[in-house]
Every structure is written in structure tokens, then in C-alpha cells.
Queue: 4 jobs
Job 1
Amino acid sequence: MVDEPEACGLITLLSDFGFRDEYVACLKGVILSLNPRVRLVDLTHEVPPQDIQTGAFILAATAPYFPPGTIHLAVVDPGVGTSRRALAAACRGQFWVGPDNGLFHLIFTGQRDLEIVSLENPDYFLPQVSATFQGRDLFAPVAAQLSLGVPLALMGPAVRDPVRLRWPEPVVTENRLTGRIIQVDRFGNLVSNIAADLFKHWLKGRPFRLWIGPAVITRLCHTYGEAAPGEMLALVGSHGYLEIARAGASAAGRLMAGKGLPLEIRLSI
């Protein structure tokens, strides 16, 4: 068993609930009823409905900027009420609560300081657990109990085989690098699955041509402002991945495409 971090009294919330309905308010009400002093931070509730991959990406992109002991409650749960497990975990010096459906794949992968339990102790749930809203009745009270210092081990048996997400990996050869778009932000920037370190190591400063849809890009910019208005460009975005953008406009709109769009980079010989 690893040393469990100490909760810091801060819970983040991520979901695909949106704000039109009562769902987010219910999560917060349950948590605050159990621990009125806890601080709540919304990461986002605008994950596309049932889009586990986007939820996983946003969670991994934001969590490192929160202090040790933060509790991350994440609910993107198309399998709610089925036999899928409910999890709580400790790793990276923080806590994680949510469904076992790959939502924490990027968080758990490669971590040695990982402790996961299957949430099976009803003492830490609401008295009645809905088959369709376990975020309110199971995950929210568990997150609140963690913020009060309840150890993971009391909440259920250990888990050693969390569900892995089908995460698209780039394909690398000597003269070609292929990937695909995994995230589109509200500005229409297209984030690829090609990590900056991988791209730079493969490129070694050599000239290249990048094809994405009908667009061809031949240089790597450092900022969006380096390109002329309306020009397509490639750069390393704040997420640490190769990103395709359009100066002053939407790359997604220009290409009429989004997640899953393939891109190919070849060395210019």
C-alpha cells in the first residue's frame, strides 16, 4: 500500500452535465451538506455528452495545476447503473473519484504510487442510490468523505485492473509521423495526439510538410500571431501537444472537421 495523500479540503468537478439542468447543483449540495467548509472548483461541465476521451483529456490537462491533496470528482458515465465499477483512487499526490470506464486512463497510466478501491461500502453513499444518477448519490458523498479524512481502504476492496481507454497513439517511422485530432477547443484549434517531445525528437529541426484535410503546413510557429490572418499554422500548444490552428479564426471551421481527423507529417527531402 502506498502512502495516501492528505486531503486539502478542495474538490474539483468535471462532468458532461451542462448547466441547464439540476445535476451540477445536486452534486454540490450533497458535498456541502457533508462538508460545508470544502472548496469547490468547476473544471468544466461542458464535456460533450458521454465523451469519455474528452473528459480524460481535460482532467489530465488541468489536474497538475491543483495543490496536493485535491480531490477530483469526474462524472462522464454512459454506463451508469450497469455492472461497471465505481472507483476512488490516490496517486500523483491527489485523489480521484468516478466511474471505472477509462475516464482516469491518462491519470493512472505509468503511476507507481497508485492505490485504487472499488466503492462498495454503502456507509459512505446516500441512503438511496439511484440507478441513473450515481454522481449525486455515490460519487459526491464519497468525495465529501475523502475531504473529511476518511481513508480509501474503508470504502471498498482494492482494484488492480482499472479500465483502460482506447487512446489513439501516433505512428512513427523514419520519414513519416501520423496522428489524429483528439481535442477541439472553443477557438477551433485542433489538438493532436502527437506530444511535443515526440515531434521535436523525430523532426530534429529538419524541414517538413504536414497534411491535414486539404491544408498543407510547412513550418512550426511559436505563437498564433506569427501567421498572417486566416493562415493555417502548426505549433506546440499549452497542452504540450502538436496543435493545428488558424490565425485569428477557426481551424475546425476551415477544415469542416474535428475529433478523429487524421494528420500526416513527412520530412521534406
Job 2
Amino acid sequence: MTTQTTSPAARTPRAAAPRRKPVLLPLTRRQYVVTAICSFVGFLALWTAVTATGLVEPLFLPSPVAVVEKLVEQARNGELWSDVGVSTYRVMVGYLASSVIAIPIGLLCGSIPRVEAAIEPIMDFIRYMPVVAFVPLTILWVGTDDSQKFLIIFLGTFFQQVLMFADAVRRVPMAFRNLGATLGLSRVKILVRIVFPSALPLVWDALRISLGWAWTWLVVAELVAATEGMGYRITQAQRFLETDLIIGYVIVLGLLGLVFDQVMRGLGRQFFRYLKGRS
């Protein structure tokens, strides 16, 4: 009579299979847009409720209707469109000048260690200085015309851009550069043909983010010695306690920034469609 024996491994109970964590699926384009619209509607509803119940005096927080009526008045007399045009012009000139100069400097900082050691500490040092403190100096340097506004926007974006562009270049895998060296390319050709195109998606993201900073510094640029523009109009409205005009122009600034951001986001999707296939 034979007895069956079981091995220790057979008698050991099997370990329970680990539970798989649920994966959050990305929203579709329609779901994203609907969610964003609902958040804006909820914000407007809360704003309307606060002003309708009288919890806050209209002097401090006017109703959405009062703000819209004020913007319509500004649009009819032409001041709104004139201010939007002038401010957009100032932002784009200062921002483009900053970007054109910052891109090559950032490319060199991220690629050549000696250039990084020479330039990046200076960029880090200056970028912590408040741009507002430079307003009197910019008036002494270039006067009070549009050049001073361009310079303020330039100073508010340039130093941050250089560091962001350099970081984008550093993220390019070293294998790409080694491949260029293996093919016999010079250092300049490696930078132009391999490094910069590889870093371009991240450079574009940095350009999109820094454009928001340019719009932020616009109000500072138009605080002094300006006779038109959105920042000038906000300052004038503050003197006369026109809160509805202040909030209206702030909303217009936000809408302009949102439009420019979405345009750059859409262009980025078109320029870098090949990134969709990467996981």
C-alpha cells in the first residue's frame, strides 16, 4: 500500500494575485470642453449669487451684468478696441524680442558646459530681482515711450526663458549627440540638426508658458507714463473707483491670454504630431 506525499511547495497556498489599480482614462476633446465650460458657468453663478444677495457692496464687487454693461460702453466708444490693440502690440514686440534672443543663448547654455557656467548663474541672479524695481531705471534708459514698455516685458520674460530653454536642451538624450558625432558631424551641425530639433517640443512649451508672463508684466509696463492701453485704463479706473471697469479689463486680459494660449497649444499639436505616437 503506497502513500502519496505532497511536496511543501504544493501544500503552500498560492499568493493572491495583486489587484490592478484602475487606470484613469484621458478625457475626450468633447468631455474636456464640456467640463471647462461647466467650471466657468459655475464660477459665474457663484459670482452672481454673491452680488445678488448683497453680501458684498457693489463698490467692491459689482455684478456680472454691471461689468458686461461697462465693457459694452467701452466697446461702443472705441476705447476697448484701442486699448486691446495697443496692449497686444506691446506684449508681442517685447515677447518676440525676448524669445529671439533667449533661444540661441538657451541652446548654448544647455549644450556647452563652459557657456552654462558663464551665463546661467547670472540669469539665476537677475531673475529673482523684481521687475517693478526696474521701472524707474527703464525710464532713465529709454524714456517713456513704447520702448520702455517693450523693455519691461522683455526683462520680465527673458531671464526665465533662457533657463527654460537650456533645461529643454539638456533633456535631449546624449545618445542623439553621440550619433551625430559618429556620423562625423561638427559640433555646430549637431546643435542645429540634432539637438535643437529634438528639444523643439519642450522649447515650444516654454514659449507658451512665458507668453503668459508677458501678459502679466503688461500691466506693470503700462503703469507709468502711458496714455493708452489696458494697464493704463485699469490705473485710471482705480483713481475714480470704477470697479466694474477694473474687473472688466482684467477679464478681457484673461480672455486674451487664454486665446493666445489655446492658439499656441493648437499650433504645437500641428507642429509636433509625431509625439502622439510615443508612449
Job 3
Amino acid sequence: MICVDNLFTGSRENIRPLEENSNFKFIEHDIIAPLFLEEKIGQIYNLACPASPVHYQENPVRTIKANTIGVINMLGLARRHGARFLQASTSEVYGDPAVHPQIESYRGNVNPIGPRACYDEGKRCAETLCFDYHRMHGQEIKVARIFNTYGPRMALNDGRVVSNFIIQALRGDNITIYGDGSQTRSFCYVDDLVDGLIKLMSSGKDFLGPVNLGNPNEFTIAELAKKVLSLTGAKSEITLAPLPTDDPLKRKPDITLAGEKLAWSPKIELEAGLKKTIPYFRDKLGA
């Protein structure tokens, strides 16, 4: 197994136990630059791109490059090795959806010139590249549209709502909700997502995706804040701040296709997942 990461948002600490395995190899590399490997590879999981606004908006042009030049480089690597290629796309391709829940045939409602476009449109372009490589070169591809995912080993500065709320609660800071808290998200625990990705990669050649991978149970952001406060025992107050531009008001996956094609559905519900995640952040903050 070869792990490639530029460590922009990733942490070497997360893979320390794996580095003791002689079958594991780490390469620090940014996929915007071409990558050549001597080892024969059969599968490529491309999850390379910052996934939270605080990080992908830090350098939006580089985010677009990761989803265009970087994806072209990885598809080229897959083609040279005859490897199957899985692209980690995102629910953000649906934008602020006019269809709810979101089904794969929905083409989305994305602002192509907004502050989130570097990620939203970048991922949409990445999907286009995958399907064009498939049509032009017969490249084996799999495209997963990933909905909000959380769990242990997220960075303290990750910037996503679950980690933000947990850290604020554990520090005794106020919980900051952007908007009025009525906007919704569907939260998938990381173990469930990994199971879905593996099943997608192992699926038959005729199933390319895109396929939604996420937990269809929908919660308001205010409900999430209250769950975090309850589970951490924090006395933090909830404060409101303006909703960022183009932030989606609704988000819920239709996972019918994943059930039919992959026999997949998430097993770990939000409260159970939070109980697995909170101790990780408590330990990190303690350290």
C-alpha cells in the first residue's frame, strides 16, 4: 500500500502505526505535480483535496488545480498502470439544492463565481475528467459523492461543523452557529464511509457511479450543537453569526443507488459516532 499526501491538511501522526508495516510506504507529494511510481499498482483512491471551506478557500486557485491538473495526473497514473481509479467527489456538486433529498441524477444549483466555487466546480470538473477518460481511453473509474463525514483523527483546525462544535464545547467557548441554525446536514461516521468506498472500488466494471455515500438521517445545525453540548457536558452558550455566502440550506443524500448497487448503508448513527469522536478531541486538547 502506498500513501501519497502533501500534508497540507493531513497529519503524518495519523499514519505512524502503519509505517511500522513493511507493506506500507509513504510519499510526501502534491498531485498537482506528476507522480511516477515504479511499483505496480492496481487501484488508486484519489481523496486529494482540502474539504472544508477554511482550507479550500485559503488558496482557491490551488484547490482548482488539485481538482483539474491533479486529477489529470492521477488518471494518467492509473492509465499507465492499468489501475482502477476512484474519485472522491462531494455532495457540494449539488450546491444549494432545489431537489431534496439529493439524488444522483440531479444536476445541482452551484454558483460558478462564488467563494465556494473553487471546490464545488472543481469537483464537478473532476467528475467530468473521470468520465471523459473512461469514454476516451476505457479507463476503469468509480465516482463517489461524499456527504458530510466526521470521526477521530480530524485536525483541530479542520474547520468543519462537527469538529468546530466539539472543540468549542471542550474548551468552554461559545458554540458558533452560522445562520439561524435551521439549515440541515446529514452526518456520516468515517467507518461507514470507508466501508462504502471499499465496496464501490470492488463493484462490477459496469457500475461507474456517481453514487451518493452518506447518512440520510438529517439534522439541523442547532440540533447538532445541542447534541454536542449534551454529550460533552459543556456549559457553553450558543451564539449566532451571519451565514456564509452560498452555504447550502439543505443537505440529505438519497442512498437508494448505493443500497441497490453496493448493498451499502451506514450503521453508526450520529450520537454513537459523536461518542466515538469526542474522546479523541478531548485527548488531543489535553495533550
Job 4
Amino acid sequence: MRPHPGHSRRAGAFTLIEVVLAIVIAVGLLSGVLLFYRQAATLRGEVLRQTDELSAVRLVMDRISSELRTIPASAGPGVHLLHGDAQSLRLLRTGVPARMPWRGGALGRAAIAEADLVEVLYRSVADTNEAGIYREEHAFTPGIAVSTNLVAEVDGPSTNSVVASAAAPPLTEEIRYLRFRYWDGSRWTDSWERVPPPLGVEVTLGIEPLPEDVLQPDASSATSTPEEYPYEVFRRIIAIPAAVGQKAASGSGFPEEPTP
């Protein structure tokens, strides 16, 4: 018996069930690949975000540490080497004088007096439009604080006007929580107004802002303390060599448990 002429074509064709099953398998594989790609992209973005946050924390911590360690032993009678509260810190550090005061002076002399001291201010801004850690730097002369805008190169002689802080970009926008505490040799305080610097400064940083239902610490009161910060914190206690050297003979030091 001869086979039907169309028998071989029908034997090699796919049935409707096979076609539908192949489509379902292909869609499932494609969905799995897309899901894996989305998860990988999300994981990559999270890793990059955490890397940027850790880099910002390290930048701020290292910068504050290096500047606190260069506070001079003295800057003249009655000059505060460091003062601040829980949200801001102002300090004097040693630095190379800028070239700007030597521009425009007669016979190559300096146009204004400038010492080898730099006044640095760190502060935290919680406003959503300008949130972040801000750093300002000014040349300092005992009795006169003259802005020299050392970050940007400025042409022409300096004036005595202070550059508006709003014009300067934040040091970092990743950090939304900043708190300082000061060790006087026996206890921690939330503010420092004495002429000699403290033995050390505790710096606490956080990525997330303080919740609205938690009151901010009162900068005008040295005894006020904020509620416990509910998120992850990065904390470092920085010893000030100029103050530690003066207190070494009296036996003052840091507590074994500095943070309650």
C-alpha cells in the first residue's frame, strides 16, 4: 500500500497544543530573565547607594578629625579655639596663609593682616531644600575674622564682608543627621563655650534625617539631650592633642564607656 502524499508533511508539523506549550515556556523563561535582570539592577543600585553613603561618612569623619587634631595650643589671650553646640562646631586650626592678602598691596606688602589660623564651621541643615552638612572656611586674625573664600580662587583684594552660607554648596547631601558632644574630662556636654578646647569631641552621623516626632536638641541648653536616634549611626570620638597634652599631668582622660 502506497503512503498518502501528505503523510510526511503532517508527521513533521507541530500541533496546536505543542505551539501553545512552547509559547508558554518561552514567556516563562523571558519573565524569569527580566525578573533576574530587575533584581540585579536593584541590587546594583542599592550597593552603589550604600557605597556613596559610606564614602560621604568617611569624608566628613576624616575631615573633621584632621582639623580637630590641628587645633593650636593657643591663639592669644581670650581666643576661643573651639566652641559649638549639638548641631554646629566652630574651630580654629593651623593652615598656610592664602596668597590673596598679598595681592594689590603697596611695595609687595600684604593688603590686610592675616595669621596662619583658619576658622572652620561645620553645621547641619535639616531643611529639605538645602539638607546636608555644610562647611565654611574663613581666614582668622585675632579680633578680626576676614572671609577669603579659600575654596574658590578669587581675583582682586578681599573685603571684610562674609560670604553668605547659602551660596556655598553642601559638603555632602548624603548625611542628614549630625550631632556633636564634648568631653571635659569628667562628663559629656552638648555645648562648649570655654576658652581652652575640650579633651575630645564625639561626632555622630546618620544617613536618615531625625524623625519629625522626635524633638531636635536645644542648642541653647547644654543639658538638653535628643531622643535616641532610631536609625543606624556612625560615631567617632576624636581626641584633641593640644588639650590632651595639657591635661595629661592632671590624670584626666576619656571614659571607658564614653557613650551612654
